[in-house]
Amino acid sequence: MIAQSEYLARREAVLAQMSANSLCILFSASEQTRSNDTEYLFRQNSDFFYLTGFNEPQAALVLIKQADNSTQSILFCRAKDKLAEIWNGRRIGPEAAKELFNLSSAYPVGELATQLVELLNGKTAVYWLQGESQLNDETVFSAILAVRQKGKFASAPTQFFDLRCIIHELRLIKSESELAVMQKAADISCDAHIRAMKSSAAGKYEYQLEADILHEFAYQGARFAAYNSIVAGGDNACILHYTENCDELKAGELVLIDAGCELNGYAADITRTFPVNGRFSKEQAQLYQLVLDAQQAALDSFKPGQTLSAATQIAVNVITQGLIDLGILTGTLEQNTQAQGDNPPAYRQFFMHGLSHWLGIDVHDVGAYKINDQDRPLTPGMVITVEPGLYIAKDIDNVEPKWRGIGIRIEDNIVITESGYTNLTQAAPKTISAIEQLMAG
Ligand SMILES: [Mn+2]
To answer: Which DSSP string do the residues of 206-253 spell out, in sequence order?
Structure first.
């Protein structure tokens, strides 16, 4: 769990970057209808959660930095309501929230619209997540308009900043306590992958392995998957975001599982590919080893100062050279990794997605990948996925039939450290021998 003192420090870090005499507002997520009068399980807005740890809908956080640089954190949240709480669950309420969440003050959310007009009056600048929600933009603009209409002694802010450039940079570097939560999310997700490997058998259905995965997540306290789980047998693995998970698993085929849980707001994102019946065929093993070698070569390069594009190039070169050696591609490494006129490089037929993305509260986490249009050097505390893949579709005609219908991805989650990296997901087996051994017994 993340201590309240850390949420306070995060708000202070945002306030430190705000200009004097400014206001920042962040809104909670809203409940989303699933059908008629039932909702999806509530999931908090990631940025709001990062600054508050407050997990209710219908809330807003206002940060104020006065002209003399003194600061306030104000929460607007649902008022206590006996009847509503009997039907729909407990509410913390403003009074308790003020103490529990280290706030300067807290008010019922019904007061937000009128108080916001007063709070904005006289401020120079406003920060919010512009364009994230029409309703939230409307709340901000309506309050600004109301200040303008108050007369000549009122003054409305004239500088509007996107809060993303502050908060998303903060979120990109994970603290020790965030890394501890992410390690736990990774551990649970590794257990789930191991369980699916042990459970796999020809004749089972993809959704049954998905059920193993989700049960393991929930049983260990992670009620949410961080994203829809992919359980793709055979050539379904060549559909990158396959989530139907409805087909029968067949002996002799591989199954690709891309699944990770969300624990206390933080995501894991792991992919493993293994034989349905526990033994790789010769061709499967050759392609699998190639992806594993590409991943290891990329992993070996990670340390502060490395860039994602340089690491990607390392993985691309290993995969491309391997495909040439197996006779799947012809020509030189350079010919196959460079664009040919208007055509993408030849290797892109078989490895068509990126190697890495940020990982954190969002599975595809926030933070700029480039700074001034230049690849950003990695720094300690960044968490990324490393996920090379190789996909040879069933209907591709320029590849020998024995290679077709095989999709492989291997994905781990790593933290960049001062000396290199640590792998959060090494507990999930990924060498051919480790997978075959686990599944044999
Ligand atoms: Mn991923």
So the answer is: HHHHHHHHHHHHHHTT--EESS--EEEEGGGGGSTT-----SBP-TT-
